[in-house]
């Protein structure tokens, strides 16, 4: 989606969809106006430096504006959405440009010069407003009230991406894949974690504040730490393996991609990566309308337990490995999550747009999504096999210590772990794998 005319068309449809959803959400909550502050910059404690600004996701859902603190979105059903756009007189900072681009026609835009001026353009009757935001966004009597029925409705339906949103996520995937390729080249060239991270940022043209989450750049044993974000400055003398979990942002949307590489591409660790990769692609094929995401998670345990048995680590059948919790020693996180405006998108457990929670399967506390898949949902599929000391110690000391071959584990431990992660769109038909699609294009 490169032509502005194409974007404008799908964007108009996206905003129309948000208007419909918002009208229904307001009805549920008994309000007349939806009011969404973009958020503010906050000082750090006892300091005059700001935390990095993070836009309110409820705001960026409407427009590709991620660097506009002090702005507001107002929607009253039957009226064109209003964007109160702060463009301060400020010679200390670069101020946001005057609104321009393919998105501006969707709004009545009012430019204000101070945050306070927004009050003149917000709905008069504050009691009739559903104001969605963080407490620091309060402006006079306009204090975020985040009514549950409104938030629940919007968050539940946000799982269903519009074609515009899929287009933005496709771009975020392309950027991520471009940067992943640069990171692999940096690894092959012998760079350490910090320098690989910089190579990634340079290729993505995004720095740590713009990326959708902290890069995980892990060499060797560090791959066993699920959220390893240390970025070692030293370059290790031995390079055995490289796990990188890193995404990119585009117009406020995220991609979330993980790849694992072996230094020795003819060795056993490469074979294990290949086995996880093949299993991962079968899991991605399960992203179909009507499939319970919990099923994909449990099937992933069975598939990975099969890989562990084939490689001589587990002595159990896949079913027994799942039953006894042995598979969880090596695969201790969920198979994935919804993704969109937030890397871990909201409402993963929502039973309906009126609230309620769909429980996680017993013994699987880290699964982030328990809903049945429907067209428009975008989810990650991220199986992994890790050799994490803490979890291995637990297995060794527990009743299932004989279920595994410890010598075999010892051979793999120096490689840390494997994770392969793609972002996959559920459609009415075959799934669309945004990550693999981007690799195929770039390839
Ligand atoms: N990058 C965090 C995750 O994969 O969920
Ligand atoms: Mn993920
Ligand atoms: Mn990830």
TrEMBL record:
Its EC number is 3.4.13.9. It holds the Pfam family PepQ_N. GO terms for molecular function: aminopeptidase activity; metal ion binding; metalloexopeptidase activity; phosphoric triester hydrolase activity; proline dipeptidase activity. Residues 168-427 form the Peptidase M24 domain. It comes from uncultured Lysobacter sp. NCBIfam families: PRK13607.1 (NF010133). The gene is pepQ. Mn(2+) 2 binds at residues 245, 256, 421. GO terms for biological process: proteolysis. Signal peptide: none annotated. This is Xaa-Pro dipeptidase.
């Amino acid at each position: 989606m490169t032509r502005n005319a194409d974007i404008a068309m799908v964007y108009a449809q996206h905003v129309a969809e948000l208007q419909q959803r918002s009208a229904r959400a307001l009805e549920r909550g008994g309000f007349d106006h939806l009011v969404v502050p973009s958020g503010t910059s906050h000082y750090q404690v006892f300091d005059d430096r700001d935390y990095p600004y993070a836009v309110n996701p409820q705001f960026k859902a409407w427009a590709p504006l991620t660097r506009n603190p002090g702005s507001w979105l107002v929607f009253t059903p039957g009226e064109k959405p209003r964007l109160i756009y702060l463009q301060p007189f400020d010679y200390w900072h670069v101020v946001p440009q005057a609104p321009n681009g393919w998105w501006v026609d969707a709004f009545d835009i009012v430019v204000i010069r101070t945050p306070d001026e927004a009050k003149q353009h917000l709905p008069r009757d504050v009691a009739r407003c559903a104001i969605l935001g963080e407490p620091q966004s309060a402006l006079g009597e306009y204090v975020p009230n985040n009514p549950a029925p409104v938030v629940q409705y919007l968050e539940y339906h946000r799982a269903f991406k519009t074609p515009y949103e899929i287009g933005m996520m496709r771009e975020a995937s392309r950027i991520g894949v471009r940067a992943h390729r640069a990171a692999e080249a940096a690894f092959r060239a012998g760079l350490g974690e910090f320098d690989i991270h910089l190579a990634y940022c340079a290729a993505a043209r995004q720095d740590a504040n713009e990326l959708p989450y902290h890069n995980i750049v892990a060499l060797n044993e560090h791959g066993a730490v699920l959220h390893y974000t240390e970025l070692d400055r030293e370059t290790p003398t031995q390079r055995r393996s490289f796990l990188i979990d890193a995404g990119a942002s585009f117009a406020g949307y995220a991609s979330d991609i993980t790849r694992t590489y072996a230094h020795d591409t003819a060795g056993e660790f490469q074979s294990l990566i290949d086995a996880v990769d093949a299993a991962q692609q079968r899991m991605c094929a399960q992203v179909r309308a009507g499939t319970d995401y919990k099923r994909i998670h449990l099937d992933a345990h069975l598939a990975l337990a099969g890989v562990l048995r084939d490689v001589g680590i587990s002595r159990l059948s896949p079913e027994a490995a799942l039953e006894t919790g042995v598979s969880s020693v090596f695969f201790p996180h969920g198979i994935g999550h919804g993704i969109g405006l937030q890397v871990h998108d909201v409402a993963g457990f929502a039973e309906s747009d009126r609230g309620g929670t769909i429980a996680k399967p017993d013994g699987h506390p880290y699964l982030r999504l328990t809903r049945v898949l429907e067209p428009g949902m975008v989810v990650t599929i991220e199986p992994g096999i890790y050799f994490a000391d803490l979890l291995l110690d637990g297995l060794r000391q527990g009743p299932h210590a004989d279920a595994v071959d410890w010598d075999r584990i010892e051979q793999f431990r120096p490689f840390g772990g494997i994770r392969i992660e793609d972002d996959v769109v559920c459609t009415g038909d075959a799934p669309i794998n945004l990550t693999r699609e981007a690799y195929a294009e770039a390839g």
